[in-house]
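If I may wish for something, please sit down with the protein I am sending here and say whether tokens and residues agree:
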Amino acid sequence: MQTTHEQMVQFLRLVHARAGGTGAILNLIRASEVRGGADLLTLTDLVSDPQLKMDLARHAMDEARHSYLLLRRMNEMGFACYRLPPELDRVERIVERSRARDPKQVYMERGSMGDAELMECVALAYIPEKDGAAKIGANYDALSGDPGTQAVIASILRDEQRHVEYLGSWLKRFESRLSRRFVASTLERLQEAFDQLDAAFYGAFHEYLERAAA
């Protein structure tokens, strides 16, 4: 069953009220920014289209800035960041389900990517970004009692909404380069894979919060 925005806000308020809860959430967001930004930055050297190259470079720059803002806020709160357990790193897990080659490997081999692989990489960015934007928006509403952290989340949210918009527009462009059916089937396959990660994610989330509280 799909969780509504109001249900997510209520859930996150409970998480933020826990000892270490806010730090744990910020660390969760930070980890996805770091992982996603690394691939995007690599992709800029594998793309020949000047506009897509610029769009990806700006996106990677945004992710780096977000990571810094989150890390700074965590330091202010006295929360030490740490690497996520594999079950909580859904960006990493969905990349493992991809049919496209790892951009870092292609880069190291001084190779290139065709439209089909580039489209899949854009889809791999789009799905977590869309999911993340919704959850970051819920975190913003849940943090009404913490204006300092809420301001950081607001800055990130504006960028995330822009990322979803530009990635979606590029997927539309790939429909004309490839086909609407091919793009739709890729999105459906990757979305299904991303959704399947939910069980493992929420199964490990409670243990993660326990560690954060300690």
Summary: The chain is about 80% helix and 0% strand. The mean pLDDT is 92.
